[in-house]
TrEMBL record:
The protein, known as: PLP-dependent aminotransferase family protein
Keyword Transcription: yes
SUPFAM superfamilies associated with the record: PLP-dependent transferases, Winged helix' DNA-binding domain
Any single Pfam family the record assigns to this protein: Aminotran_1_2
Domain HTH gntR-type: 15-83
UniProt xrefs under InterPro entries: Aminotransferase_I/II_large, HTH_trans_reg/aminotransferase, PyrdxlP-dep_Trfase, PyrdxlP-dep_Trfase_major, Tscrpt_reg_HTH_GntR, WH-like_DNA-bd_sf, WH_DNA-bd_sf
Amino acid sequence: MPATSWTPRLRRAEGPLYAAIADALAADITRGKLRAGERLPTHRELAAAVGASIGTVTRAYAEAERRGLVRSQVGSGTFVRDLTDPASYSPMLDRSRIDLGPTAAPLVAGDLGHCALAAALAGLAARADLGALAGYQAHGGSEAQRAAGARWLAITGVDADADEVTVCSGAQHATVLALAALACPAGVLVEELTYPGALAAAGWLRLPTHPVALDEHGLVPDALARACRDSGAKVLYCTPTHHNPTTAVMPKSADWRSSPCAASTG
């Protein structure tokens, strides 16, 4: 396939040129100016078109690939990805990138999140059963939705059947349901610095919270054991990966099997 004659429309910005090229590429994919599968200009051709060095274009293409906008094939070139195809476009599950877990980025027009949302909404609008989807749904999600949840959990290493999956209206709703189902009147164990939504959920359920000390790795095991004994609480709410607000990551070597209470991670 011959390369497209694409030339980015660069906006004046304070940031580096390579980022502006990647932003322009994202914007043109969103507008439909660049279609899935099209081969982009070579590094040398694009460098000549925008008056930049080959190194700058190489970095721009690398940034676009990091965002999931393009794919590079040695000897063939750089191609636009199909953002509507989950098999081709799955940035949240791509292990070649850094997974920021529960963190979220704003949806900016022309950026990766905007492209994904636009594609998803377009696919939803084209469905023949859109009217049925807008009506009342089965409690806990439909069978297809719960099966999809089980498949996603399997990718993350959690073995669950569809019957064990419940679809919730967001993470806060899920937190309230989990605490209501699992916590006893003694309350909930939380990190001494914890997500405000967890405190709000416990407060709404009138459950006392018991703070547990943190260090640079997250929860301190000895402090957790003491809190379990002293409080009588049966549930722990914690964020072991990218803790909010410290960003600490709990090491896998931590052994929680000796802890006298059950754990529920948020």
